[in-house]
Amino acid sequence: MAPTRRSAARVQHAARDWLTKLHLVATSAGITTVPATLLPAIPSGMRLIALDGVPEERRRVNLARLPGPTAPATDALVHTLRQQAADLAE
Questions:
Q1: Tens of pLDDT along 28-78?
Q2: Are 71 and 64 in contact (CB under 8 A)?
Q3: pTM
Q4: What CA–CA distance (Å, rounded) separates 64 from 2?
Q5: Are 35 and 52 in contact (CB under 8 A)?
Q6: Cα 59 from Cα 85, distance rounded (Å)
């Protein structure tokens, strides 16, 4: 009997937000890494496998806005987000 040839895996879905990633996994449509902070949000029935010796997950925050001058409230939000990110990185 000839050995079976496995086809290369293809990326069918890509997501950047954790909720979407978890839902793709929950519907058997994907796999993902998960930071420890999300452990309480893991849907029931999902299996976790600990990975040792890999870099810690990094969370990205994006802010979308309309082009043009920003309002003072927007500037304050951006400043606060950057400061919090810098504090977390320390």
A1: 888 888 877 788 888 888 888 888 888 777 767 778 888 899 999 999 999
A2: no
A3: 0.49
A4: 54
A5: no
A6: 10
